[in-house]
Protein 1
Amino acid sequence: MNLLETAGNGILAIIRAAYFLLWGDLVTIPLPGGSFLGLSLLILILIPSGIYFTLRTHFLPFRLFPEMIRVSIEKDHVSQDAISGLQALFVSTATRVGMGNLVGVVAAISAGGAGAVFWMWLMALLGSSTAFAEATLAQLYKEEDPLYGGYRGGPAYYIHHFFIKKENSRRYSIIAVLFAVSGLICWCGISQVIGNSVSSAFENAFQIPPLYTTLILVAVAAVIVLRKNATVKVLDLVVPVMAVCYFVITLFIIVKNAALLPSVFQRIFLEAFGLRQVVAGGFGAVIMNGAKRGLFSNEAGSGSAPCAAAAADISHPAKEGLLQALGVFIDTIVICSCSAMIMLLVPEHVTAGMEGMDLLQAAMHHHLGSFGVIFIAVILWLFSFSTFIGILFYARSNVAYLFGDNWLSQTLYKLLALVMLFVGGLAAYTFVWDLGDIGVGLMTVFNMIALIPLAPQAIKSLNDYESQFMGRGKLDKNRRQAPL
């Protein structure tokens, strides 16, 4: 027993060390009042790269937002067994509009205060251009999928092509392998977060023991993920329903508490720039928690969403890039803001000393009574369920890159994820978040190694799309040509 405890403590120590390397204070900047601003490796990578892509795309999130909307309702011809660009958006939205939007926002505000919401918004605006670049590259380097049909790809594939110029010269690229392994670690971590959060929510709402909730969740998930092509069909139904329901309920809460909105926004902006936190020495926590949870939520730059973007059968690579940029907006500016408003429109004394799902459910109880607690438990189940299905769709391409095209490796990873889902239902809250943060952090580092040098190809695709499909910002249907 002592040997097991020693091994467990050793694993936890490794996880903590890796977490600190990625998210710890790599650079510290002194601030007035004795406080300091700590900048982690991920922040030093993501914020400058987000600014870079925003400038290179000429402020794409603002300039081409109407085109993003238009592309989302446009119908493309889709070949048999492939998925459409909109379906790829549903898959990526299933994972974005999931745990990060509920538990992630709760964690950010719990640790960094209301100001963390502002930094989540900023990460989304910068991240939209990054999401465009990585999704477009995923389309440019996609391959046919002999197992599932349609296409597959993602960062592991464009990283491979970047480092190995000659086709068939080598089976693997070291950086691509590291990305693929990091992705699989990340998604196992997220599986644990899902199990943990759902079991906690149902215990609070219905007094159901975590073991029973987790068993049911695993059983239902297994029925879906172990079937060949059930994933996209389920997400086509679940994602729009859950997102609309959550948005409508939040809109009702906002209207009901409209008189409090000015003070809420004042609190967000005051705390974002540390006017209260600098004195208390917590300004760095505001930025770090907002940026960290923003990345975990919108995934821009991490390389997750491109695994879905590559699967789309779409007429131009840049169109999928625009759809994924829209996905970041939907995730953070809309859905994350909903969660933030639910919590910040509650008097602070109601949720004092709470964290995690207890905080969110207490907020919903304040707004809607017992119905609110039940609603948030059910919506969390839908968010979590869709996230789990979505990350296993992502995993297809990474598993194929590492182990080749065979059903054995695909099925074994799905079984591993189901085990992690079960373990997460009984795991410690902080541990499972750290494991997910490590995975997404490593993915981001390896993804950016190739993403920035390959950026000119994504920009070229955007310029080609605008010259073919758009004239002075307006759609020109008479100038359509074949994509790159």
Note: The longest strand covers residues 27-30.
Protein 2
Amino acid sequence: MSKSSNFFGQPIYGQLIKSLDREKIVEISRKHGGEKYVKSFDGYTHLLTSHT
């Protein structure tokens, strides 16, 4: 049985990311001191890149 390489619709990870509120995530991160030394890699970007 071969795996299909064709996606119909959007992958689940993409659907999940679209449902996230960037401003709320950054607000929570700031509230807990997560944005203290940030120059360009904010809490939202960190969340998206640390899924592995």
Note: The mean pLDDT is 80.
